[in-house]
Amino acid sequence: METRRPAANLGLTAAVCVVFVAGMVGMSFAAVPLYRIFCQVTGYGGTTQRAEHAPAATLDRVVTVRFDANVGNGLGWSFRPLAREVKVKLGEVGEVAFVVENRMSRTSTGTAAFNVAPGDVGAYFNKIACFCFTDQTLAPGQRLEMPVTFFVDPAFADDPDLGNTDTITLSYTFFPAAAPPQPVASASGTKDGDQL
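The structure assignment produced for this chain is given below.
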């Protein structure tokens, strides 16, 4: 004997499926900003921290900070650190300058992505000032020195997973910045101020 489901059950099943699909689409759009916030808070994946000032105390433990500079495809710039590495005590403020030059025949804008290795160090690596906080625009042939001011939190010494870590690599890659939206052409070829 065949039993049929009432129409109400089919409608409920369809409604649940629609809500589920809508929720999944919403979560896919929220995933990137939520992941970025998670990385900034925890230092996950080598995401560094931002700080207003250095800690009051330093420790005698010294770490070597190495610098890596890269340029992504589509951006005709040269980019390098002035010093390949520096040694700093935990809590001590360090500073290094990077040199960037636009080798293209047009003005271009780049944005710097960054991380530290090993990844667990991200929670302890703090930047006070960095060119990576904003996009950089260079005229053709323009050369610019850009400083980075940083410190490694003294709490680094208390992390048992980093007990043998004495070298940190800070890596930057410049990519072309997203182009600003172009203004919509005026209707019927009129010029600004003309009446339709």
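Interim note for the steering committee: Confidence is low (pLDDT under 50) at residues 31-46, 186-196. The radius of gyration is 25 Å.
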